[in-house]
Automatic annotation (TrEMBL):
Protein name: Phosphotransferase
Ranges that cross the membrane: none
Organism expressing this protein natively: Thalassobacillus hwangdonensis
Residue ranges occupied by any Protein kinase domain in the UniProt entry: 12-272
Superkingdom, natural source: Bacteria
Pfam family, one: APH
Length: 272
């Protein structure tokens, strides 16, 4: 979206600057001490996320003549969590609140977000498998897909929740008034909670602390949850590699491939 369109929406007196991010559709706006975070076509259930205190307060929503929807949220001073801070009990508490929210689930289901099943994820990865063909033989890619295929029958749950689907520490915002938020909900899905738990625990929580972390989240550890978490961690790693390569972010994709290799070594899927 062109900044001049935002100037027409807000008025020339607002100072508007890009906010960065992968979509390039987010902006900061400031005028006379008032500060807003603006985004085009943000997640349609931003209002309930705001009401639940999961994202900064939604100030207003406006629809443009071309059908685009602009949302304005409070622009808060704060910072992203460090990788080490992901171990904090309040991260487990907020994620548990999200996964147990019937309001979030009802809203996402109403906007035609049907549950995402493991077979759907594997099918998408296979459908885009050609993206991996240009990678100079990286055996871990093929072995990862083989692992997902072989273990698909064991990844099952009857519980589906609202999943954020990107547990990267830079999506966790700690405001200067000590309020924790989880932001950037564009890829949210209704899915197995192990999708979020797998990435978060495998990348940020030492293995010896999993039992305590899951207890704070409100879940007892079990072989089944570990198997599901591992499956989703590998699947999401492959999906992120494909996404970055499709965008031409080859350096980031290469880093994701190295991270996938480390993950698979940890799971004893491959040896060093």
């Amino acid at each position: 979206m062109k900044v001049k369109w935002l100037e027409q929406l807000l008025g020339d007196e607002w100072s508007i600057t890009p906010a960065g991010g992968s979509t390039g559709e987010a902006y900061y706006a400031q005028k006379d001490g008032k500060r807003l975070f603006l985004k085009r076509n943000s997640s349609p259930f931003l209002a309930v996320l705001s009401a639940e205190g999961i994202v900064p307060k939604l100030v207003w929503t406006k629809r443009l003549e071309n059908g685009d929807v602009i949302t304005a949220q409070e622009w808060l001073e704060g910072r992203e969590l460090s990788p080490e801070e992901m171990r904090h009990p309040r991260v487990a508490k907020l994620l548990s609140k999200i996964h147990h929210s019937s309001e979030l689930l009802d809203m996402l289901m109403r906007i035609s977000k049907h549950p995402l099943y493991p077979a759907d994820i594997l099918e998408d990865i296979r459908h885009n498998e050609r993206i991996f063909e240009e990678i100079d033989p990286r055996m871990e890619i093929g072995q990862a897909i083989e692992y997902l295929t072989a273990n698909l029958p064991y990844v099952h749950t009857d519980r589906h929740v609202v999943c954020h689907c990107d547990m990267n520490h830079n999506n966790w915002l700690l405001s200067d008034n000590d309020q924790l938020y989880l932001i950037d909900w564009d890829n949210a899905m209704v899915a197995d909670p192990a999708m979020d738990l797998g990435m978060l625990l495998h990348w940020y929580i030492p293995r010896e602390d999993w039992e305590d972390w899951l207890a704070r989240y409100g879940l007892e550890e079990s072989q089944n949850i570990y198997e599901r978490m591992s499956w989703y961690a590998v699947a999401q790693s492959l999906a992120f590699i494909q996404w970055h390569r499709m965008r031409g972010d080859y350096e980031e994709a290469a880093q994701r491939i190295d991270a996938l290799k480390q993950l698979m070594v940890r799971f004893n899927i491959i040896d060093l």
